[in-house]
Amino acid sequence: MLEQKDIETLNKDFHHSVKAIKGLRCSAHLDLLRGLDAVMVVIVHFLDMFYKLSFDNPSLIAKAAMFLVVQGISSVITFFVLSGYLISMSIFDPLRKGTFNWKSYLVNRFSRLYVVLIPALCLGAFWDILGARLYGANSVYNGVSLGSICVPPSVVKHITWENFFGQLVFLQDIRCHTFGSNGVLWSLSCEFWYYIIFPCLLLAFYKGRQASLKKRILLCLTGLAGIAFIGPLMTFRFLLWLMGTALIFVPLSKLIRHSKGLRVAALVLGIICFIWRLTLTPTFPDNKDRFLLEFLLGLSCMLCMFFVLHDKEPLKKNIYEKGSEFLAAFSYSLYLVHMPFLFFLRATFIKEDRWPLDWEHAFYGGGVLLLVLFYAWLVAQLTENHTAKVREWAMQMLGEGKKKAAVAAADNIDH
User: Fold this and answer.
1) Dihedral pair phi/psi, residue 150, rounded to 5°
2) pTM, two decimal places
3) pLDDT at 93 over 90
4) Which of 155, 159, 249, 363 is deepest in the core (most CB within 10 A)?
5) What is the pLDDT of residue 405?
6) Distance between terminal CA atoms of the chain?
7) What residues pair up with 24 in beta bridges, in sequence order?
8) Which residues of 368-381 are buried (b: 16+ CB within 10 A; e: fewer)?
9) What is the DSSP annotation of 205-259?
10) Per-residue pLDDT at 18
11) Using CA atoms, how far apart are residues 35 and 45, in angstroms rounded to an integer?
């Protein structure tokens, strides 16, 4: 079992805690990784829906597009590893300080999830129903000549109350389908159940808390029941999520942390690991070895994060750091709301076959991408950017008061 002194060591020597990365440049690197991956997911779906893609096309632009399209799964695996690291820190920190409680933890997690998810589902319903009514049965909303990834064969058949409410309790790909055209919601059910399973199992074996044997057994059984409920594939991806947790237990090199030259070298190694991640997926045609591929993707992300975490320079609010913060600030909204809107634009602009992949249509596509990014940013201004206020309101409604709400906010890292 984990002793209290073990957690204190993690915070003191390993430099892995919520407060330990805030205000340091390593947090900007993590923000950039999260933001770029969200943008990458959008680009993958955009290219797949709008353009004629083929490995046989010898042009440079076609080869670049195909390279990007196969990166979809790598971006999602990166989200899992990042989430495992950040969420685990938000649990270990209050455990170390003796302030962890389920009420604060669940308010933090539910507010983060639902502040964007509920509007995303409503907006998705709006765009899907509008598109289906405008373009009729003989359209992409009924699977006519689409064949796109992350979109069901018939969007109309997936616009059901069962799927809508199933998303609200995170049962997609467990007991229901994803709602409408928003196929990317599959990963959100993984995240939610990992948020529940991990602390249950951790607290069942964490010796620092004074808990009865009965309570520990109950927590352990709850965690194991959750694993049985989500099934083998989600359980495997939980192991990838735990790669982020494992980073908390890997000591950073003191030599690297105190040498500017070695910190630069560590950043270079982090970039190399990121590039390695990008080159992995094309080497696994048709994802025949899915589990090996996803394991290697998770490992490459874990290594990338390990190296960039050595950058302890204070934030200087330069262009790089401001840009990273900007992207991360609406990355969650971008991930959740882009698909139905992008799908509607596809039905609007492309009546028959996809665009040819040439420079002229690449220019048009750039305009579409900017429109989608602006749309997601606008949604974030009305939803995601108010998460802290919603969290504080929820804590006060539950009788925690302003002081405990402030403590809960300090213990939390948004992801």
Assistant:
1) 65, 15
2) 0.89
3) no
4) 155
5) 53
6) 28
7) 314
8) bbeebbebbbebbe
9) HBTTS---HHHHHHHHHHHHHHHHHHHHHHHHHHHHHHHHHHGGGSPPPHHHHT-
10) 61
11) 16
